Amino acid sequence: MVYTILDLKRRLRKAEKMWRFHREKANFETFKSLHNEYTCTINSAKRKAICEKVLMGEGDSKSLVSELCGTKPENPLPSEASDEDLAN
């Protein structure tokens, strides 16, 4: 899947450069069709990855949400015995 996405991206950028340089309708149509294919492939890969994470995280919704959102479960503040110690 990764090689497919990378190949599509290369072909898309090459078609975009051709269209921007020559400004021909045929080049634009090629660019547009490759762009649609690339977008569809990226979206399906994202959808598949999220579905796999949801299926793997059955029952533990807290860790699933933190993994999908990219949040860290640990407290960023240093641990101190009291508020005064933390302030000093």
Automatic annotation (TrEMBL):
Per the record, the domain of life is Eukaryota
**Region (Disordered) residue spans:** 66-88
What's the protein here called?
Answer: Uncharacterized protein
Q: What is the lineage of its organism?
A: Eukaryota, Metazoa, Spiralia, Lophotrochozoa, Mollusca
